[in-house]
Amino acid sequence: PYTPGNNFHVAVQCDTVAEIERVFARFAEGGSVTLPLQYTFWGSRFGMLTDRFGVHWMFNCEPTQDG
User: Fold this and answer.
1) Taking 70 as the threshold, does the pLDDT of residue 5 lie above it?
2) How far apart are CA 8 and CA 58, in angstroms?
3) pLDDT over 70 (residue 65)
């Protein structure tokens, strides 16, 4: 069933793996992880969660050689 406000995600692009892991963990506090951070077929680290306020988030990071 349709619930107003739950039909979008806010996307966050991080520059390094360390940054995405830190930010993802903070946003997940008190929330619910939908998709844990994991490497993807497109060469990035990606994860999804709903924070403690009910906002849906997507996190992506395209690691560099130093990151």
Assistant:
1) no
2) 10
3) no
Contacts of 5 (CB under 8 A, 6+ apart): 54
Residues with Cβ within 8 Å of residue 9, at least 6 apart in sequence: 48, 56, 57, 58
- Residue by residue, DSSP assigns 3-66 as -TT-S--EEEEESSHHHHHHHHHHHHTTSEEEEEEEE-TTSSEEEEEE-TTS-EEEEEE---TT
DSSP state of 2: -
- Radius of gyration of the chain measured on its C-alpha atoms: 12
Average pLDDT of every residue of the chain = 88
Task: Report DSSP state, residue 1.
Answer: -
C-alpha 13/C-alpha 47 separation (Å) is: 11
